[in-house]
From TrEMBL:
Source species: Reichenbachiella carrageenanivorans
Name of the protein described by the UniProt record: HEAT repeat domain-containing protein
Pfam families: HEAT_2
Length: 173
């Protein structure tokens, strides 16, 4: 079956074979599939967007899909499914995206923030002094623009531990 026919099966109303089609497209994994999944991230149907993100995550050479997926997560139109889309980042190389994931940890919905924290805790990132400076800058911005309550105090403890761990890691290097 042609890629366009398979893509059509996960565009719009989905049937019971939608996940199988997603898996098939991921196995095909060509540049054409990646391009089609990137286009599908803008589809009006939320389920189609989710399956596009899922398919991109399963493709072996999915680097080209990372930036569009991050854009889709940030798109206010996708706020209801942002957490579901964010889950699909697990299958990408995020090594250069610490600061972006950190920003989602600070500013995302509960689901996005929780998943971002999990990625920050379990994925490998390229940590440099610049990355730490940028993370601190975002923390400062967040601190200055959020209600200073008990939740903030807990977040502050958590973030300070994270940043201290990163600095200790760099010193060990």
């Amino acid at each position: 079956m042609a890629v366009t026919e398979l893509v059509a099966q996960i565009s719009g109303e989905l049937d019971s074979k939608a996940y199988e089609v997603s898996d098939t497209l991921a196995r095909i994994g060509t540049e054409e599939v990646v391009e089609e999944m990137i286009k599908l991230l803008s589809h009006e149907n939320s389920d189609s967007k989710f399956l596009a993100a899922r398919t991109l995550g399963k493709i072996k050479n999915n680097e080209a899909g990372l930036a569009p997926l991050l854009e889709a997560i940030q798109n206010k139109e996708n706020s209801v499914i942002a957490g579901d889309l964010f889950m699909m980042l697990e299958d990408f190389d995020l090594s250069s995206k610490y600061v972006e994931i950190f920003k989602h940890f600070l500013n995302g919905s509960f689901k996005v923030s929780t998943q971002a924290k999990d990625l920050l805790d379990h994925k490998e990132f390229d940590i440099t002094p610049r990355v730490i400076r940028k993370a601190k800058k975002h923390w400062e911005h967040y601190s200055n623009n959020v209600k200073q309550d008990e939740l903030y105090d807990l977040r502050k403890i958590e973030v300070n531990e994270m940043l201290e761990d990163l600095e200790a890691y760099l010193k060990e290097e």
